[in-house]
Amino acid sequence: MMQAVQKFNLSSAVQKVSVVFAVALMSLLLALSVVPSAYAQEGDKKLSKEEKEKQLKFKDGITRKRKAVGPTCAKRLERVQEYVAEEQWSEAEKQLKGALVRACSEGFEHSEVNRFLGYVYYSQEKYDLAISTYLKFVNEPEADLDKKTDTRYTVAQLMFMTENYKGAANQLEKWMQEATVVARDGKILLGRCYYNLGRKNEALKLVEDVMKESRTAKQTPKESWLNFQWVLYYEKEQYKKAVGVNRILLTEYPKIKYWKQISAMFGALEDSEKEMLALDLTYRQGGLDKEKQFIALAYQYMAFDVPMRAARMLEEAMEDGFVEKNQKNLEVLGAAYQRSQEFRLASPVLEQAAKMADDGNAWSRLAGVYLNLNENEKALVASINALSKGGLKRPDLAWMNRGTAEAALHCYDLAADSFGRAERFDRAKKGAANWKRYVQMEGERRAKLIANGAKLATCKKV
Which of 59, 220, 269, 432 is most buried, judged by most C-beta within 10 A? Predict the structure, then answer.
């Protein structure tokens, strides 16, 4: 997905460059259709020693400047320019092919025609032909050296677009050797080639060099560069460095997706508090759009003892359709209300969850809620259902809840048995033993009082 985005952006960039290139190319060809007479006049003059040395020093530059297409070739190219302006690509292609055969001579003129023909092929989305034609220009000894360097970069872009990453890397490496100024965009493009070729260490080195250059120049790196750097750090599991990149992205290009990313990185670093805060900021900006994100945030809220925020957030997400009202999610919502001590709100939610559940965990939690509401008969039924369904994470709690409900209903013998069952689990052993002893003593005390004529409530079986 990320690569698709990169290719789309790259395609746009190539298109912009190519349009500019077409206009510039035709203007240059027409401007050079006649050799400036000034150079001929300079040749007739008697030069001083200093002037001769200066001319010798810039001999190559002058020679290159004097290269131009002849009148016949220029006329053909003028006609092509009209077709290009009207986007009559097939006719422009026909005229340029004809120019290679008749109107323009081999060497420099052919190189200029090929450069223009490469653009015409590109405009028709004939990318393979565009690449091969541009390469004819690049490999022509008579071609303008500066244009060769620029065109080599264009070829690399097209090769990247067509997923010829090896070819693109080869062209970019040559371009870096030839170019007077190596643009940072080119280094990033070469880094992307290396990435797709599995040379990720080399890719990362190039990207880090670009970032260093940007800092030195006191310039903000492009967002796409930073995203590429983030991916490289993430895939190498260098999460701290990825967080550093996210901080720059959030400062220079603030977007909700970067809060999501940095939250995930804090999670990978096991920094739970920062993970929660980043995800909370994402939620507050309306950035959560997947069920698992809402559920994850709910758990984090509860972990940091703000369960009511978890409950309100989940209720809203369920109403908006982001979170399904299934058994598992309802259990999370019910647990959030329970931990907030909002037992009246927790009970109907957990009742729905319990009816959907295949195991007894929701029933066990519901029993605890009923006990807090002093609805002891419901608590006893819920705990019996929990133990009957099984699959409990905490069977000791289910037995404790059952014993507590039975004691509240004055069924002391039954309560003692339930606490005895809970006593078998290490986590509840001490508490269960104390409760068992208490209900046994209370049961004996009340039995004596009743035997002596006291009118006390007896076991209310459900």
Answer: 432
Among the listed residues 278, 285, 401, the one whose alpha carbon sits nearest the alpha carbon of residue 296: 278
Measure Cα distances from 362 to 316, 386, 432 in Å.
Answer: 22, 8, 22
Structure confidence at residue 25 as a pLDDT band (50, 70, 90):
very low
Average pLDDT estimate for 23-34: 35
The answer to whether domain 1-38+60-179 and domain 357-462 are alike in fold is: yes
- Name the token pair of 222: 């492009």
For 351-361, write each residue's pLDDT tens digit. 999 999 999 99
Task: Say if residues 288 and 322 touch (Cβ distance below 8 Å).
Answer: yes
Q: Does domain 1-38+60-179 have CATH number 1.25.40.10?
A: yes
Q: Tell me the C-alpha distance between 420 and 433, whole Å.
A: 7
Domains of the chain, by residue range, sit at 1-38+60-179, 357-462
Burial of 254 (0-12, 13-18, 19+ CB in 10 A): exposed
Separation between Cα atoms, residue 107 and residue 336, nearest integer Å: 79
The rounded distance, in Å, linking the Cα atoms of 398 and 360 is 9
Give residue-wise pLDDT tens across range 429-440.
999 999 999 999
Say whether pLDDT at 53 is over 70: no
Spell out the SS3 assignment of 381-406. Answer: HHHHHHHHHCCCCCHHHHHHHHHHHH
Q: What's the CA gap between 279 and 396, in Å, rounded?
A: 35
CATH code, residues 357-462: 1.25.40.10
**Three-state SS for 140?**
coil
DSSP letter at 162 equals T
Tell me how far apart the 2 most distant CA atoms of the chain are, in Å: 144
**Element holding 41 (H helix, E strand):** helix 37-44
